[in-house]
Description:
The structure holds 2 protein chains of 2 kinds.
Chain A: H1 6-31, H2 39-51, H3 54-86, H4 88-101, H5 106-117, H6 122-145, H7 149-157, H8 162-191, H9 193-196, H10 205-214, H11 219-243, H12 247-250
Helix pairs in contact in A: 2-11, 3-4, 3-6, 3-8, 3-10, 5-6, 6-8, 8-11, 10-11
Chain B: H1 3-25, H2 30-33, H3 36-41, E1 43-47, H4 55-67, E2 72-76, H5 80-88, E3 94-98, H6 99-107, E4 112-117, E5 120-121, E6 123-128, E7 143-146, H7 152-163, E8 172-175, H8 181-186, E9 192-196, H9 199-205, E10 209-214, H10 215-218, E11 225-230, H11 231-236, H12 238-257, H13 259-274, H14 278-286, E12 292-293, H15 301-313, H16 323-326
Parallel strand pairs in B: 1-2, 1-3, 7-8, 7-9
Antiparallel strand pairs in B: 3-11, 4-11, 5-12, 6-9, 6-10
Helix pairs in contact in B: 4-12, 12-13, 13-14
Amino acid sequence: MKTPGRSARIMxxxxxxxIFLLLWDGAVRFSGSDLFPKPLDVLRGILExxxxxxxxxxxxxxxxxxxxxxxxxxxxxxPAGLLLGWYAHAFAAFNPLxxxxxxISPIAWIPVAILWFGVSDAxxxxxxxxxxxxxxxVSSIAAVKNMQPVYLRAAQNFGLTRGQLFRRVxxxxxxxxxxxxxxxxxxxxxLVVVAAEMIAVNSGLGYLIIDxxxxxxxxxxxxxxxVMIGVIGLVLDLLVRQLEKFDEVRWGYANR
Amino acid sequence: xxxxxxxxxxxxxxxxxxxxxxxxxxxxxxxxxxxxxxQEAKFRVGFIPVTCHLTCxxxxxxxxxxxxxxxxxxxxxxxxxxxKEAFLSDYMPATFILAPLAMAxxxxxxxxxxxxxxxxxxTAMMVHKDSRIFRIEDLKGKTVAVPNRxxxxxxxxxxxxxxxxxxxxxxxxxxxxxxxxPAALYAKAVDAITSGEPFMGQTExxxxxxxxxxxxxxxxxxxxxxxxxNESAIKNDREKVQRLVxxxxxxxxxxxxxxxxxxxxxxxxAKQYYNQDPRLLSFVLSKPPDRVKYTNLLPLKKDFxxxxxxxxxxxxxxxxxxxxxxxxxxxxxxxxxVQAHRWEGEKK
Lengths: 256, 348
């Protein structure tokens, strides 16, 4: 496959975006809907949020909740995944439970979150934690299980202790695959921000969408919230991909 | 810099930065200023941005204007399920809530007591302006959206059908959050919608909805939402519950005193509490002025017995609890003795 050049890599997505916006605008005009907003209405909605000083506040609130939920998921998910991947008995014991919890949508957890945490920031953080901890754990388990046995044999020859083995061999060799899991989990964490903010918090991009539904005919703000979530999601993904440029990770992708 | 150090450092910096920003922008630095304790001590009251709960923000606003602060903290929710769950988790001791929902919770053993009404009337059944539905009988075989199975809107439909010799199964009832109803009617996804205002008035204001009936025409002095408190608040915080009920009563009287007051309330509530277009709230509070009323809010046994009876017939209540179990009208004063707030807007 021929890789596109630098200018093509910039121009192609812009061209596709412009065509998408034109199609969107045309479709709204064609249908004659005065409820669904056109791209320009959405832009005006975003500018209105900027003028009121709400946009920055909402973005910060959502990023705060995703950051903490995701950080907790990393702190729990990666060590848990490495241990479960390494110790077969632990895996046999816990895997069914993990697989059972994994497919439950964070929306289903909303009532539980409110009953446990009230309507403070802790409830959405908990929901985001739940959404992201399973992909991280599962990808870490898979990373350990797929590890090349030659690393382990070498480690045994050097007489490493168990702690050293985890820190110096297992974790580094699993890092590239864990990072892929982290990328997916970050996407999921950001994805559930709308659901997580359906709880009575009064800030955040998810709240913006729910609040705009309450506000009558403000579908421009609903779509503005969607656009901001999309744009920030893109930026987050680009940032995580920067990690892949480090040597500690890049070796795992070298053969692509 | 090495991979480990870069990642660790940027992660810690980001965590610190976003936390400080969130505290500064959204939590107004109350962690740092020690304001948290004060916040905790406040008496929380739950509400949803509908006209049925209007007296909650009105009382808060006028108390702040007159006294500089308010003794209770209104907490806004976006739907009844979340509101109910926050009440169950003891996050707040008082809330505005659907009357049949409060009664059903009581049946399920929740220590909830209705102490006052939120309003009277204030609901409508809307159809699309192109629709051929002109009488309640025409709803036969149609799809009607109601807010919740425990909503009085559903009971009202039940009552209206019964009086016309129809059955509730003659229509296809679906539950839908009120904010989504206008768009559903616009797209003709449903044939009729019914919920609290301002979502019904919105379809009229935007020119695609037509009123099939206003509640006052089918069930005069209809009650949809009530002010309910946790029994522990009645036991331990009597004085606060009394102040709350008095404040709500004064706000109701104030709202029904003059059209100017309603328009004033429409403006500050829309801008500062509901985040809605002030035009919309002015519309539903004034056209016609008796679309929703905020006086005569004393909980009366006979009104609730009717709700109880309809609730049992329609299958949402079991009839295990009665007025004395789920209501405590001792805080409510006789309408004649209720004083309206003496506040006429800012004159600075």
